[in-house]
Specification:
six-stranded antiparallel sheet; 20% helix; 9 strands; 131 residues; OB fold (Dihydrolipoamide Acetyltransferase, E2P); globular; alpha+beta
C-alpha cells in the first residue's frame, strides 16, 4: 500500500528528492514521497556499510524498483552510524512509509552547516511541481 503524498515541514530536502531529519549532530536520511512514487514499488535497497563516509550531493546507495535502478543522493555529509535493516529486508517499506519506517540511514554529520543549503518544504514542493 503506497503512502499518501506528503512532505513533512520539519524535514530538510535535497533537489534530488532526498530528505534529512536533523537530530543534533546526527541526521536520518531517506527518499521523498515523490521519489518513491516516481520509482514505483521498491524491490531492492543497496545501502552503504556502517562506518562508511558519505558526501553531500554524491550517491551513497541504490534503490531498485520494478521500473528502474536509481542512485540515492546524500543531502548531507557524514559517517554512517546505522543502516535501516528493515528496508534492506523489506524495501517496499519505503513505499508505505517514506518518512517513518522507510528511512534509509542515520549519519553523524561532518559539517552541520551543510543543512543551511537544503530546501524547506515550500521550496521543495516547487521542485516537485517543476519535475
Amino acid at each position: 500500500m503506497a503512502a499518501t503524498e506528503s512532505y513533512p515541514g520539519e524535514l530538510k530536502y535535497h533537489k534530488e528528492h532526498d530528505w534529512a531529519r536533523i537530530e543534533g549532530d546526527e541526521a536520518v536520511l531517506g527518499i521523498t514521497w515523490f521519489a518513491q512514487d516516481s520509482l514505483g514499488e521498491l524491490v531492492h535497497y543497496e545501502p552503504p556499510n556502517q562506518g562508511d563516509t558519505i558526501s553531500k550531493d554524491s550517491p551513497y546507495g541504490e534503490v531498485e524498483s520494478v521500473k528502474a535502478v536509481s542512485d540515492v543522493i546524500a543531502p548531507l555529509s557524514g559517517e554512517v552510524v546505522e543502516v535501516n535493516q528493515k528496508v534492506v529486508d523489506e524495501p517496499e517499506t519505503v513505499n508505505a512509509d517514506p518518512y517513518g519506517d522507510g528511512w534509509l540511514v542515520r549519519i553523524r554529520l561532518t559539517d552541520p552547516t551543510e543543512a543551511d543549503a537544503l530546501l524547506g518544504v515550500e521550496a521543495y514542493k516547487q521542485v516537485v511541481a517543476e519535475s
